[in-house]
Q: What sequence folds into this?
């Protein structure tokens, strides 16, 4: 977007080429950039500002539920990865290997962590010996590496940033409770802070995490009709506890294995924000995570430049106390150019102020989500801004919720099912017999996968969308990122 | 420290075996642990809590000076590292190499970043084209890997966490100003937040960063008489700009190379905190970065357990509004055991409350730094705690400053010099002729290195401590970590 020549570079029309629109928004809003290393991205300051806000808000929710942060090594010995059979099968094909270090070949190659269950499991076996040591409630903010064949900025990159919670519990019930609690933390974070409505549910056996007993997830619907897995929470049972020998002496003096969970969200959430809220003009950021919530654009005819700038600075000083505000006083760009730029960057509120506004004792607020303009008397400035920030937050959620509702279809007719998927019209709620054969066939024939079995199970009897047998569950299908 | 059997494990006496004391404090206070990967450590929640506070306070200072955070890839193509001759010479021997990924041998091996000048330089050359794009003021919080032969928890580990600032400027003067500004940010952060007095100065040619024009540093004195380089700020000149072609069209329409800086501190700061403030009883944390500032220990005879616990909970609720406070209500440990444990963990204030205190309407505050006990009436609780936290912060600084002053020697007698270094009695301020020969000989003969040439140069004429020629500078020598 920044362009020394001073004209706005256009972004591809969303309606014409969704993928190109997505990339254009990221590059031109300066959220991220391609890197010289295949599949790795650079997160630029504006994009990283969003991630910092996500981290802060999520971290507060983790701490409020009793979790503490720690840091485990980036490298994992090859032998660790191999211990849990499903885990190694799931991850080995996509890991990066360190084979040489300090000018020597390593005796045992090291894996660059794709996820940390194994190395953390090893440490937990050292730290835990009694029921008094439980629960262990630890989270890690870290970079992880999964060598992906096809990559897409934010959604699928060879290196990405995430958080991974890893907990140990005394009983199976406690572990299940924790798994669901963290799923709910994700659900409320996405809806309240990111303004993204989600489906919360359980993954099928085929789609679950490699090494888990059960994987729960939150799924969001992008505006191109595809689903995005936005967060997962795994009940690991005793799978890792057994292979890493994480055991404790229980109250009854018996040696037992702990029950574990793990859960994570990543920088792919930023991709979700772009695709749920973005529009033809570019990004539209929910106020709670917007690095700049209000951009002040002074309208400065040469005669009154100083007067306007002074008032604009006063306005910024007042607003700094209540929100994240910035002044765009650059003189090499016109107000119109700036309007476009800050709309592209998704700033929730634009505040315009010119000589006539000053005379009338007011400013103009313009909402990014609706484009609506409101005159606000100077004396009401703070209240009006706070109200409008809340209103934009709610407005974005309401719009996204409406979109999801309108694009969720209920059918048990496979012909209709195929047409909906083919036309990229969103989610389908349909009965399923519970067999992997049908799940795999549907995917092969339509490209759609089972996104989740909803938490509030639908008890209505039905016939499987694929084979016509009695259904075990009603599930959500969609094409997914 | 946590021990299911309920007795306190002792730490080695500091006066007897300093290195073992250092390790004992780290392991028993649960700051960190060894990992199964050679030279890598695990930062446990209590240690990571210190790092989180360091990050937050430093990040605030970076943002107040106009910097923004971003994130660059973990991997760097081999060819990038090779571009700057001194840089590759300095780092190549200690890097870890990814040679295989996703089941394939990589055509070009990747370096796991030991520092990011090269990859960031590559991106800057894409982003910068006009003087209007300058300055670029970016910082990154990240993990880096340097394959070390001998490692020591926090001080030298194969992987560590740090921040690295990377800036670009229009002029040489601006770059030098930035270099010194960030050095001063480090100096004030260490003195004000970590309560660690420092020497600020310039490194010699021999000790400077591989690829820099000038390296400035802050050096602290540990209580065993050795110096610790706590932070560095580099003026990179145009070295990287030239090899990565980071150029811009200046106001005069000439294409010019940018002037760069980089600067960093790492998790080794935690090692510094331990060695500057720790004592025979364990860790002593400066309140500003202590994860727990006040630990409340209820004294509960069985008869009045509930009453005491209720009052203790009220106290915690009041203090939560003004500081980081925790209640230790575990019933499996005695108050005496808890006193020892929280002293070992370095909590600045212990608050004791028992039936007699409740009757008298007071609590007892005990300072970690001096052991001093103070009765505080309930109604003065908040003020007393805030005052005492400030007082502990100042007290730790004053004690460390006194130690540094008492252990800084001025001499130009090489015999005395050798004795002081041999006896590990601290820093020596001595004249130096400016030649690398003398610098190298002093190191070979005594183990001491030039820690820095102080910012406020001493103009007194002198004779080089080693060769006896006229000195160019008075410099600080010490053995260093």
A:
């Amino acid at each position: 977007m920044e362009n020394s020549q001073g004209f706005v570079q256009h972004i591809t029309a969303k309606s014409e080429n969704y993928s190109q629109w997505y990339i254009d928004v990221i590059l031109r809003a300066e959220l991220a950039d391609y890197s010289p290393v295949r599949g790795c991205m650079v997160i630029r300051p504006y994009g990283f500002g969003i991630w910092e806000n996500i981290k802060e808000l999520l971290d507060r929710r983790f701490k409020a539920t009793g979790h503490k942060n720690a840091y485990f090594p980036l490298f994992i010995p090859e032998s660790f990865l191999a211990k849990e059979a499903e885990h190694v099968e799931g991850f080995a094909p996509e890991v990066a290997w360190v084979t040489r270090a300090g000018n020597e070949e390593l005796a045992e190659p090291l894996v660059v962590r794709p996820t940390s269950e194994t190395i953390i499991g090893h440490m937990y076996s050292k730290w835990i010996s009694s029921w008094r040591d439980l629960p262990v409630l630890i989270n890690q903010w870290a970079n992880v590496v999964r060598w992906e064949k096809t990559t897409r900025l934010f959604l699928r990159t060879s290196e990405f940033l995430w958080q991974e919670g890893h907990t140990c519990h005394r009983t199976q019930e406690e572990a299940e409770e924790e798994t669901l609690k963290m799923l709910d933390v994700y659900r409320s974070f996405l809806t309240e802070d990111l303004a993204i409505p989600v489906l919360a549910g359980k993954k099928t056996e085929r789609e679950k995490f490699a090494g888990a007993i059960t994987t729960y997830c939150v799924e969001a619907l992008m505006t191109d009709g595809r689903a995005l897995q936005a967060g997962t929470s795994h009940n690991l049972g005793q799978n890792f506890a057994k292979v890493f020998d994480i055991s404790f002496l229980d109250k009854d003096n018996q040696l037992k294995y702990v029950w574990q969970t793990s859960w994570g969200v990543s920088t792919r959430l930023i991709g979700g924000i772009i695709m749920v809220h973005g529009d033809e003009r570019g990004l539209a950021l929910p106020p709670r995570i917007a690095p700049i919530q209000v951009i002040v654009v002074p309208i400065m005819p040469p005669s009154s430049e100083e007067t306007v700038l002074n008032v604009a600075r006063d306005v910024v000083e007042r607003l700094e106390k209540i929100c994240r505000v910035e002044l765009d006083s650059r003189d090499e760009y016109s107000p119109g150019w700036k309007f476009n730029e800050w709309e592209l960057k998704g700033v929730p509120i634009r505040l315009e102020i010119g000589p006539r506004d000053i005379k009338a004792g007011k400013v103009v607020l313009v909402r990014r989500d609706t484009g609506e303009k409101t005159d606000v008397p100077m004396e009401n400035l703070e209240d009006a801004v706070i109200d409008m920030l809340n209103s934009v937050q709610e407005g974005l959620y309401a719009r996204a919720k409406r979109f999801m509702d309108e694009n969720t279809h209920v059918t048990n007719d496979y012909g209709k099912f195929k047409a909906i998927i083919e036309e990229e019209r969103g989610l389908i709620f349909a009965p399923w017999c519970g067999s992997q054969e049908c799940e795999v066939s549907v995917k092969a024939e339509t490209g759609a996968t089972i996104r989740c079995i909803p938490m509030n199970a639908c008890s209505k009897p039905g016939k499987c969308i694929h084979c016509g047998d009695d259904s075990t569950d009603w599930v959500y299908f969609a094409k997914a990122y």
